[in-house]
Specification:
The structure holds two protein chains of two kinds. By secondary structure, chain A is mainly alpha-helical. Chain A has 15 helices and no strands. Chain A has helices at about 1-30, 40-50, 60-70, 85-120, 125-140, 145-155, 170-200, 205-210, 215-245, 250-255, 260-270, 270-300, 300-305, 310-330, 335-340. Helix content of chain B is about 35%, strand content about 20%. Chain B contains 18 helices and 21 strands. In chain B, the strands form six sheets. In chain B, strands 11, 12, 13, 14, 15, 16 and 17 form a seven-stranded mixed sheet that branches. Chain B has a four-stranded mixed sheet with strand order 1-10-9-8, sandwiched between helices. Chain B has a four-stranded antiparallel sheet with strand order 4-5-7-6, with helices on one face. The chains are: A mainly alpha, B alpha+beta. Chains A and B meet through helix 2, helix 4, helix 6, helix 7 and helix 9 of A and helix 1, helix 2, helix 9, helix 15 and strand 16 of B.
Chain lengths: ~350, ~575
């Protein structure tokens, strides 16, 4: 297990480095520079490029960037907040996105689970249909529509909640964006939970458990939900990163000082360092969470847990990763996970 | 099958995931306000915070974008300029009509040859740390602007525009900053030497690039921290920064009790809010969370006739630049004139832009430059009506000539534009108008992000482009200077020796000591641009603001400082 974890961590670090390089190259290939403005004369653009070292060969720039990155220095912003260290920008903005995204994930996952369980237990009844409709709406309606609707009703018409984010009152300001953002998570989790629960409920071991005299809550919670939960985590993990790294549109609507809006502004203004830093953080979070999920899978899967061969564990872990992705992308539903799931 | 260990693990997993959410929920709110909030509270005297919080006479101001920099020599955008000017006074300031009047300088002497300006500073001008504002603060600020290490984007205000002695060499790095033609004669006397007389020099003094920076304070700060928080800026103006962090979406200023003119400042403070969604901004305005908001063209329709609607000129001229250098058909004057007359500007401003923007038929837009006799350079919008009008029949005549001269009857041009909604709408209508009036002409719209569009036109990689220019200073030369041979904004590489001579005479030659002759010569220059249809002027942008009836005295200007709040009153 230890080897497996070390290997995965090393792969993650390497992946991050590759991502940084690709980003670096892609940004430099983009037309324009951070200093394309009608008001700038060619000499001034040259002076600015020289000031920030953008006149050097690309490999020198990349080498310097990675060296600085190793020291925890993300560089400075060129346009959005001129000469401000990016670490400072991220420090003030990331917590806001984490906060709202966290609320959205926590709330969305909880309500989604409940909805999914209720729907599965009331399969082919009106309740099931209602839950399905809610899920379909939640998945298909973009979060900004919810955001606008909430803002208009709760914010504008009723004046219950602030329409614009206030640093003085972060919790109250986060409620509407949190709800708007949680809809997709809630709906996806509800849909997955329902499907997983239905499958588990129809399985033979449930029949066995039932025939052993287990019923009611213990049957559902201990035997059905527990088995249904694992694939759901696969869906939830990327959603956590998605939400925590901020949503452009919802952040824009509520004027939330988060990283989502920062990233888009940075891309539009060719603020290279900000784009790379935020993408790097985004990737690091993503890889980090996938790593945690992978390791958790290793722990949960009884075959891995009982197996004594480390190599097989690693192999199994990779199979899990690919299979889960196939699942998330909808390429090969059901079987992939069940193949190494708990029987 | 044993369930127990598996169950506990499953619960642990779920708990982990939920905890992740919870940690983010509960852990961060306390952390969020810390950087700006507590630091500001510590540093600001106790009496200052309640005034800001009281809100009674605090003006709630909407801006569309974040402040890009609070360093007066680095900032370039309107929002940054506005906020810097809230808490900083330069040598001069604008009065309500846009005229340059004394601020930190109580008087100015100009030598007879017009080459030396001597500013006498007020004795009672103080920085917020109690230090007096001295001539050396201006020397330091201006040297920073010219210093290649600062790489100030507006350094040309000192060299090309201001013609300050040695500025060009200092900016190019061939002379040390100490050679810049500015000096502190004594603590309260600041002297500037120019290469040639500059008629509008005094009016440059309210431009933030020329603002003072206290040398001792600046040098006492850790490198790179100037202008990043209330503690790292000094105020000598009507307000002082109360809460701010880089790229903040909300920040505030409070009245500066030590301002030399504090008695005339009626507001308790300014609460800024960045709102990028105009619908949300307008709803917040209706809910009284904001006192002044900018509307989009569509919103103006909803509120037409509302007494709180204020339309003010923003100075920006939108125009079409035609690349005659690389596109033979556009090198034909009659073709360019045909396009200039095929456009229906009146329809564009009333049906597309809708925010009060003004149809413009002159190369220098109206309402920003007043001449020696006080009259607007472009007040008469019909002076070039024989070459530039909304006139399909005239367009057809020019087009016929162009077709004969070029020996072709169909033309396809690529029309480059930026990816903003309003620009795209305008371009779509222009395409329709031009294609309808000039049968055989096809415009292919090419939409690009701003940075790419600017790169393309700067490299001449375009055929026709919808672009804009905002005035840097209150003189027609801020526009006319663009069309001289070799200017980097002369995208179509148009060139005329006659034109170049007039502009040279107006900036460094024959007319520099004769304001009315210079003014007349600039009319002649503009006439050449229009007769040749070097550009196709379209409209002068306006800003449609909603301002609460209880608020008065906000001053709007098309140049340098778009909004000034120091004389605003909130009932």
């Amino acid at each position: 297990m230890k080897n497996y974890v070390i290997k995965r961590v090393l792969i993650s670090v390497f992946t991050l480095l590759v991502i940084t390089l690709v980003l670096f190259a892609l940004l430099r290939l983009m037309p324009g520079s951070p200093f394309n403005d009608e008001k700038l004369k060619p000499e001034q653009r040259a002076a600015l490029n020289a000031k920030y070292g953008l006149d050097r060969p690309l490999y020198v720039q990349f080498g310097r960037y990675v060296l600085n990155l190793a020291k925890g220095d993300f560089g400075v912003s060129y346009n959005i907040s001129k000469n401000t260290p990016i670490s400072q920008l991220v420090q003030s903005r990331l917590p806001v996105s984490l906060n709202i995204g966290g609320m959205a994930v926590g709330f969305g996952a909880l309500v989604g689970l409940i909805l999914g369980i209720v729907a599965a237990l009331n399969h082919r009844t009106v309740i099931d249909s209602v839950c399905t409709i809610i899920s379909v709406l939640g998945v298909s309606i973009p979060s900004y529509v919810f955001a606008l609707g909430l803002s208009y009703t709760l914010g504008f018409k009723l004046s219950w909640l602030p329409m614009l984010y206030s640093m003085k009152n972060p919790f109250v300001s986060s409620i509407m964006p949190g709800i708007a953002l949680c809809m997709f998570t809630m709906a996806s989790i509800a849909r997955f939970t329902r499907n997983e629960m239905l499958e588990v409920l129809g399985s033979e071991y449930m029949l066995l458990a039932e025939s052993k005299g287990i019923s009611g809550a213990p049957l559902i919670m201990r035997h059905a939900l527990r088995n249904a939960l694992i694939p759901i985590i696969t869906v939830l993990a990327p959603l956590i990163v998605d939400l925590m790294t901020g949503s452009l549109v919802v952040e824009k609507i509520f004027s939330i000082p988060g990283v989502g809006s920062l990233l888009v502004t940075a891309i539009q203004s060719n603020d290279y360092n900000v784009v790379i830093a935020l993408s790097f953080i985004y990737s690091a979070m993503y890889i980090g969470i996938m790593l945690v999920v992978d390791i958790l899978y290793g722990i949960i899967d009884p075959r891995i847990r009982l197996s004594k061969d480390g190599g097989e564990r690693g192999g199994s872990g990779h199979l899990g990763f690919a299979a889960r992705w196939a699942r998330v992308l909808g390429i090969k539903p059901r079987k992939a996970v069940n193949a190494h799931g708990i029987q | 099958m044993k369930m127990k260990p598996a169950k506990s693990i499953a619960i642990a997993v779920l708990a982990c995931l939920l905890a992740l959410g919870m940690v983010a929920c509960s852990g961060t709110p306390a952390a969020v306000p810390t950087p700006a909030g507590s630091a500001a509270a510590e540093a600001t005297p106790a009496e200052a915070t309640p005034t800001a919080a009281a809100g009674g006479k605090t003006l709630n101001v909407m801006v569309e974008v974040e402040v890009a920099s609070l360093d007066p020599q680095v900032a370039t955008d309107g929002t940054s300029f506005e906020v810097i000017a809230d808490y900083t006074d330069g040598l001069m300031q604008m009065d309500a009509s846009g005229k340059s009047v004394p601020a930190v300088a109580q008087s100015v002497d100009v030598s007879e040859d017009g080459l030396t300006y001597t500013f006498h500073l007020r004795d009672d001008a103080k920085w917020s740390n109690g230090e007096p504002v001295t001539a050396d603060d201006f020397v330091f600020g201006w040297q920073r602007a010219a210093d290649p290490a600062t790489a100030s984007e507006y350094s040309y205000m000192l060299s090309d525009i201001g013609q300050i002695k040695n500025a060009a060499d200092v900016i190019a790095g061939t002379k040390p900053v100490t050679d810049l033609g500015v000096k502190a004669v004594d603590e309260k006397t600041f002297q500037v030497e120019l290469n040639v007389p500059v008629s509008y020099f005094a009016s440059l003094m309210y431009f933030p690039t020329f603002y003072p920076v206290n040398r001792a304070f600046y040098e006492g700060l850790p490198a790179g921290t100037f202008g990043t928080s209330p503690e790292t800026v000094l105020s000598n103006g009507a307000f002082k920064l109360d809460s701010y962090e880089p790229a903040a979406l909300s920040f505030s200023l409070v009245k500066n009790p030590d301002y030399y003119n504090a008695a005339s400042v009626k507001l308790d403070g300014l609460q800024y809010q960045v709102v990028k969604d105009s619908q949300q901004a307008f709803m917040s305005y209706q809910n009284n969370d904001l006192d002044i908001v900018k509307l989009s063209g569509d919103q103006v329709d909803q509120v037409s006739g509302d007494p709180e609607l204020n339309v003010v000129g923003a100075g920006y001229l939108w125009y079409i630049t035609l690349n005659g250098h690389d596109v033979p058909a556009l090198d034909n004057v009659n073709m360019r004139l045909a396009i200039a007359n095929a456009v229906n500007r009146a329809a564009i401003v009333t049906d597309v832009v809708k925010d009060g923007s003004v149809a413009t038929y002159t190369a220098v837009p109206p309402q920003f430059a007043a001449g020696p006799d006080g009259s607007d350079f472009s007040a008469d919008q019909t002076k070039f009506s024989d070459v530039c009008a909304d006139d399909p029949s005239k367009a057809a005549q020019y087009y016929e000539k162009a077709q004969q001269e070029l020996g072709k009857d169909s033309f396809t041009f690529e029309f480059l534009l930026e990816d903003q909604t309003e620009t795209q709408n305008v371009a779509a209508v222009l395409k329709e108008q031009i294609e309808k009036t000039l049968p055989g002409v096809t415009l292919n719209l090419k939409v690009e992000p701003k940075k790419q569009r600017v790169e393309d036109i700067q490299n001449g990689n375009y055929e026709a482009c919808l672009t804009r220019w905002g005035p840097d200073y209150a003189d027609p030369m801020t526009y006319l200077g663009m069309w001289v041979t070799g200017n980097s904004n002369n995208y179509g590489l148009w060139s005329s020796a006659d034109y170049d001579k007039i502009i040279a005479d107006c900036t460094t030659g024959a007319y520099i000591n004769d304001a009315s002759a210079r003014w007349k010569a600039m009319y002649d220059a503009e006439k050449i641009v229009m007769d040749q249809a070097v550009i196709v002027p379209l409209y002068t942008k306006a800003d449609a603001n909603m301002i609460k009836a209880s608020v008065t005295g906000i001053e709007f200007h098309p140049v340098a400082l778009n909004r000034v709040f120091k004389n605003a009153v909130k009932q």
